[in-house]
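Please review the protein record below. Tell me whether the encoded fold seems credible here:
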Amino acid sequence: MFLFLKKLFFQITCGIFTRTKDNHDFSRFPITEKYSIISLKFYKNRIYNFLLWTKNTAIFILHINKFYKSYLLLSDDESKKLFIKLIVYKILGPKHVKIKDNLDWKKEQELINHADKFYTSPSEILLKTHPLFGGLNHYQNIPTERGHIKLDCWTGGITYGSMKKQYYFSRHGVVIMPELGDVVIDAGGCFGDTSVFFSKSAGTTGKVYVFDPLSIHGTVINKNIAQNNLSDQITYLPYALGEKSNDTKPGESVNCDLNPGFRMTDNTSFPIKCIDDFVQENNINIMNYIKMDIEGYELLALKGAIQTIQKFKPKLAISIYDKREDFYAIPLWIKKISESYNFYIDHYTMHAEETVLYAIHKN
């Protein structure tokens, strides 16, 4: 614990006296208004940042032992250094901390410009424009390890899937990703772009099951499956994943605009399936890889997959950034139900989103 705290407080101290440059993602968080130092908005922003700093610091102090236990689970130095850096970033913010030295706005712009080279036209799927990300676009000739693909999605689907390789972990000989012949669950499919990349990795002998409860997302997912001739390799399931299945049928009470950050609310009924029920009902006899990015519901979905994890020991790629407690709660929970995993983390943005916990069976 002493060494962990020493490293943490050293970085916090350094960060307090550091001012970062080129460390704001204008694509994800556009700045639409300049704050005058004498304006009310300026002071509201300062107060908000102070309250956020206080909250994040308090959360860390209150759960310091759990953060430390989670830190100890990590299997390489890179993951441990990143774990500490992410804590410091959440406390001090982007003006004082760069999460990764090679992640800055200039680099992000280069990736966006490269992704735009695959753009051909607006999507034929006419949906309401998203207030932040705009309308869907059609992209062609996107390279994968097994041929080129077409996608209807946003630019981020290209940058993260093709260039940043999110949900694909490879470090010092450790590989955690869909591989040839793998059976895969893609939880939080959104537009199915990730599922198409997964399917190309798994090949014609593999299988991808993609889950997303929003019918409007399902329209895009099915479009991306069809235009890449992957109907035999990818199956779309219009369900959310949770700890327990419910009786709500797909299509009932599910009507929403494009929403990559979709979250179920207490007063809305959505069709929910737990992975263990799905595996049993469909007589699935192997599961090689499970990816989850479901906006803070990852732990509940994992609790619905206990039997699947214990029986098949699949590779895991689980987002842990949506809830502060997921940073420690998810790895500690996986460790509790199975002692046989090694853990790693990686991060894919210059801001606090897109931290992925990877886990692989020790044997």
User: Anything to note?
Assistant: The first helix runs from residue 2 to 16. The chain has twelve helices and 14 strands.
